[in-house]
Write a structure and sequence with these properties.
This protein has twelve helices and 18 strands. The chain has 401 residues and is an alpha/beta fold. The chain has three domains: 146 residues, Resolvase, N-terminal catalytic domain (Rossmann fold); 124 residues, no CATH class; 65 residues, no CATH class. The strands form six sheets. A four-stranded parallel beta sheet has the order 4-3-5-6, with helices on both faces. A four-stranded mixed beta sheet has the order 13-11-12-14. Helix 6 packs across helix 10 and helix 7 crosses helix 9. The structure holds zinc ion. Zinc ion binds next to loops.
Length: 401
């Protein structure tokens, strides 16, 4: 009996080993358009599976994934292909181009699928694909090739549109961090761009803290760590939320902050690749009030942060209760600091993000003073049965313990 999955509207039936238990593969680069909408793809897949007496045991739905992506790295399809989600007998897609728009990747996927003894079904082909049949192999390759050509055509068209809009001084694409486009009607052209209060406040705060710091400890990377800890939406998540999507829980990075500080977009100009677009009069085209002025923009350039400064070269104690972070100016902590794990070793990194941390130098100083309190300021060397004490000015012969 089919049941609906909680995450989407597509029915699934349990794996029963009938040899036709298929995985439904859906892909969209953007969730819109009736011809390749999720519901349309679902219906095509269900029809095709029913025609071949198969049934769908699960769905690998990759939304917002470009057709140029390697299928093995797609968030939902990848784990199935790597056999991490249990058995299935084949793949079912609405069309060949839903598998991929890259000829090489598409052929590799079909070949590996066949080698694993699995079936391949697409709704734009009658029956199962038999890629040992030269005619079918040609058809499959041509369909991939056609999808590739379409992909290039779409990309070229989008780029040309962007160039046209830019030349006309119009806003194209998403607003920079700290800004929002205002449209007078849903789906209408952008009327004007203005500051978005919340993100603008976050950006102004890091742009104020960075040049104001005199300790050398506030760097783009330490600011990134601070914002991640405070659970402020990263610019990509903020952009998603602004467009009504769920945030992905991304982290801030030093590079993002640096780009935001240095980009002409933060000054309120229309930009291309971070640089202001010049209008017919030779002046930058202003589209919104700037988050800050030129002096603030040039401040981080005047004093570049040390390489990798304050970066999350952090080590966590095994319980995730305390982390140490290296000082911007010190040598990096070794990857294999004994007893401490790097944040990349922890599967659920967010669980330790809130843990208190201290700079590694402070930890060393604190440990040293505690040890001096307890054992005295002399250097103590323990050999097997003797203790040697060396003090300033005199040495004592080893004492038997
Ligand atoms: Zn089955």
């Amino acid at each position: 009996m089919p049941s609906m999955t909680s995450s989407n509207d597509a029915p699934v039936t349990p794996y029963d080993g009938c040899g036709r238990c298929l995985l439904g593969v859906r892909r969209l680069s953007r969730v819109q358009g009736a011809t390749s909408s999720p519901a349309r793809q679902r219906d095509l897949i269900l029809d095709a599976a029913a025609r071949e007496s198969g049934h769908i045991i699960g769905w690998a739905d990759d939304w917002e994934v470009s057709g140029d992506t390697d299928p093995y790295t797609r968030p939902k399809l990848g784990p199935w292909l790597k056999d991490q989600h249990g058995p299935y007998d084949g793949l079912a897609a609405a069309a060949v181009d839903r598998i991929g728009r890259n000829v090489e990747e598409g052929l590799r996927l079909s070949r590996l699928n066949k080698e694993a003894g699995r079936l391949l079904l697409t709704a734009d082909h009658s029956g199962w694909w038999d890629l040992d049949d030269p005619a079918q192999e040609n058809e499959f390759t041509l369909k991939l090739f056609g999808a590739r050509m379409e992909f290039h055509a779409i990309r070229t068209r989008n780029r040309q549109r962007a160039v046209q809009a830019r030349t006309a001084g119009e806003v194209a694409g998403r607003p920079a961090y700290g800004f929002m486009h205002v449209r007078l009607a849903h789906g209408a052209k952008v009327d004007h761009t203005e500051n978005e209060p919340d993100s603008a406040a976050v950006a102004r705060e890091f742009a104020r803290r960075l040049p104001a710091d005199e300790t050398g400890r506030v760097t783009v990377d330490s600011e990134a760590a601070r914002l991640t800890r405070a659970e402020v939406f990263s610019p990509s998540d903020w952009s998603r939320v602004m467009y009504g999507k769920e945030p992905l829980g991304g982290r801030w990075s030093g590079n993002v902050i640096k780009r935001s500080c240095l980009s002409d977009a933060s000054l309120g100009y229309l930009t291309h690749k971070g640089k202001a677009v010049l209008g017919p009069d030779g002046h930058p085209v202003r589209i919104a009030p700037g988050l800050w002025g030129r002096p603030t923009q040039s401040a981080p350039k005047a004093r570049p942060a040390p390489h990798g400064a304050g970066r999350a070269f952090r080590r966590y104690c095994p319980l995730g209760r305390l982390s140490i972070q290296r000082d911007p100016t010190s040598a990096p902590l070794g990857r294999n600091q004994p007893g401490w794990s790097s944040d990349t070793d922890i599967p659920d990194r967010r669980s330790v993000l809130g843990s208190p941390w201290i700079p590694v130098q402070d930890l060393a100083t604190s440990a040293e003073s505690r040890s001096a309190c307890r054992y005295g300021s002399s250097q103590k060397i323990r050999t097997r049965r003797t203790v040697t004490r060396r003090r300033c000015g005199w040495t004592r012969r080893p004492t038997t313990w």
